[in-house]
Design goal:
This protein is an alpha+beta fold. The protein has helices spanning 48-53, 60-63, 106-119, 121-126, and strands at 18-24, 28-33, 39-41, 84-88, 101-105.
Length: 132
């Protein structure tokens, strides 16, 4: 069994009022801050040192994007439990260049990961995420 980090407070605002809303063997526990709505993952304990060296990922607010860049759904119209999430197109979490980032609703962020997993890198090349 892989050990995952248990979050005690929000990574964004520091509020201790967070809820665990899911779990993935890859990403760990999924948390939502009840105060600011920020969504984050607990992550694997063994990756914690590596993650500390990573530059912080910008939030949709930092990028001033308030709608999914795939479907155009505005943040205020998202369903309960959905948020806008930042996705790295080229799979490099240290590359925070704006051209490498997509702001996606939860549904389309999951879709991108699903398609990339099942259809391979051709999907990412077609949509500009990987450079040949």
């Amino acid at each position: 069994m892989i050990e995952h980090r248990v979050l005690k407070e929000c990574d964004k605002c520091g509020c201790p009022d967070i809820s665990e809303t899911g779990f993935s063997e890859i990403h760990g526990h999924r948390y939502v801050c009840n105060a600011c709505g920020y969504v984050c993952w607990g992550g694997r304990v063994k990756n914690e040192d590596k993650n500390k060296k990573r530059p912080p990922c910008p939030t949709p607010d930092d990028l001033k994007v308030y709608a999914c860049e795939m479907c155009g759904l505005e943040e205020r119209f998202l369903n309960y439990g959905q948020t806008l999430e930042v996705h790295h197109k080229n799979i490099d979490p240290t590359d925070n260049d704006r051209l490498n980032l997509w702001v996606l609703c939860t549904k389309h962020h999951k879709l991108v990961h699903h398609i990339r997993h099942w259809e391979g890198e051709g999907f990412m090349q077609k949509f500009g995420g990987l450079h040949e």
